Amino acid sequence: MAKVETMTKAETSKKEKSSSPAKETKPKATTAKPAAASTTKKAAPPGGKKVNPYNVFMKTEIAKVKADDSSLSHRDAFKVAARNWAGSDKNPKNAS
């Protein structure tokens, strides 16, 4: 069985006094933040997002690769298209 401790009234009042704060604290003022400002996305720049040559090439090339071989998964078609990009004249690194 568990031992139950009992306190006298004097011990109880000492404990209550020692656990109470010496000074009263004031509640902090809260500032209201606009919820819409933090949850909204930034607007796209006029004319839409700037697309680089790689993205344009890959979009069309993956479609071509899948049209040639429809049994390829997207991942495999992407690998083939990436290899094609490496040798493409549309790739800025290949333009001399």
UniProtKB/TrEMBL annotation:
Residues 44-87 form the YABBY protein C-terminal domain. Residues 1-27 have a biased composition (Basic and acidic residues). Signal peptide: none annotated. SUPFAM superfamilies: HMG-box. InterPro entries: HMG_box_dom_sf, YABBY_C. Pfam families: YABBY. Residues 28-46 have a biased composition (Low complexity). Residues 1-53 are annotated as: Disordered. This is YABBY protein C-terminal domain-containing protein. It comes from Clydaea vesicula.
